[in-house]
Amino acid sequence: MAKPSNMKKTKYIFVTGGVSSSLGKGIIAASLAKLLQERGYSVTIQKLDPYINIDPGTLNPYEHGECFVTEDGAETDLDLGHYERFLNIKTSQANNVTTGKIYQSVIEKERRGEFLGKTVQVIPHITNEIKDRIKILGNTGEYDIVITEIGGTVGDIESLPYIEAVRQLKWELGASNIIVIHLTLIPYLAAAKELKTKPTQHSVKLLMESGLSPNILVCRTEYPLNDSIKEKLALFCNVQKEDVIESIDAKTIYEVPNLMLKEGLDKVVLEKLQLSTEVQPTLNEWNIFLNKLNNPKNTVEIGLIGKYVELQDAYKSIVEAFIHAGTKNDIKVIIKWIHSESFTTKNIQQKLKGLNGILVAPGFGERGIEGKISAIQYARENKIPFLGICLGMQMAVIEFARNVVGLKDAFSTEMDASTKHPVIDLMESQKEITDKGGTMRLGAWKCLLKKDSKSYQAYQTEIISERHRHRYEFNNDYLEQITDAGMIATGVNPETNLVEIIEIPSHPWFVGVQYHPEYKSTVLNPHPLFVDFVKAALKYQLNHE
Ligand code: GLN
Questions:
Q1: CA nearest ligand 1 atom 3, residue
Q2: Which residues are CB-contacts of 47 (< 8 A; sequence separation ≥ 6)?
Q3: Residue 255: active-site member
């Protein structure tokens, strides 16, 4: 696509949130970016998180949902997953900044003597660091537009330095190079039968007290905003009526780019940034996907077995990968959420019966482990398509070692440090490491596939690269025994021989992967393993009707 001709330097868009959390800033940012991308601009999205953890890698998934991993091994907020899935681009370390990272870097500079003689303060030292982190992406020269989402809600004490940094940047870079989009909620009061603008007015007032005026309001609402509501919002919030964008509740997040296009969000954004609106977004490929998503020909039910199933955001990328892969196959994938602690030998049949596929999820620690192993045994023995991801793959090896090879007490040293048969063991490179943050085997690593395998069939190429997040690995001391019994390592790291994929060729579709395929699935590029897993689930269903 021809690049708009009037692009000179990178422009910045900030997305703040008001009134309530969980309004979907990430989806609005990703949808806007998608439309700008369609208009020929190169866009990336960055997330600023106001918490003090260096990254979400040390956070419990119950607190924060999934930890998304980038190609370069950053453990990041799950919104980066949305950015990648919508835009079909790769993000990096620079795309997720936390207060922890900001302070760490400022304190390190202080210790090196970089501020010698000065009192180190929030303004200017912390705000300078924030501004530098924002500009890093723009300074690469790769992007026409950088969208930065500020986590949290306006008014939170912890997000104040970020708002202040944006205020300063506006003066530094000039108003036509920066705009602020404020996402708020317009609640509907059933008793009064009315949409209420007051919370938004208050939220904008709070933002203005910090020195920032929104250029555009995006208003989450259950009901359409009529003209008089838009006029009222414009009047009280210092914007034009055209700058009040309705964001009505959608059936799926994938509808949002179309909704924003209809409302003209991309157009007002470009006008404010003084950029060309000549190229119109078509969303052609996107709408082919959407059309298939809304018109499935078949339905399969896949059990997702994990220990965080109460919070489905803990498995966000897996859920989305099923949507992409299902859509590619014209299949609606229904996920049955199954808690790995809920199995007993008595109820396993009843819990898993009728499923067309079983996925055992990634995870850490001992809780729910035996449930995962029993589910794998059930999938293996009943020839139900199975995909094990990371911990799920490791448990598949343990189940096979115990029940097929006959190593009754086979285990992972993660769960039992003194097991007699450590078929899964701590990686050599991990043995000296004591710190927990950012120290796993992270990011993209190569894997060489065996040609005669389900994985090769899926990928159609011999060398793949996938993202990782683990400390333990298949113990190659047991490779021969396990291979002889019928479980094959069909993918290995070509440099270290680390087993990346195991399969059971005598089973219709049994694949365990040490890496996380879910991180690389996007709307336009569904992940091949998920695509084939869903296909196998449909085949199983048709054979068992
Ligand atoms: N706990 C396992 C390990 O560290 C698996 C990790 C995961 O599932 N991401 O190796």
A1: 470
A2: 26, 76, 77, 79, 80, 95, 96, 97, 148, 149, 151
A3: no
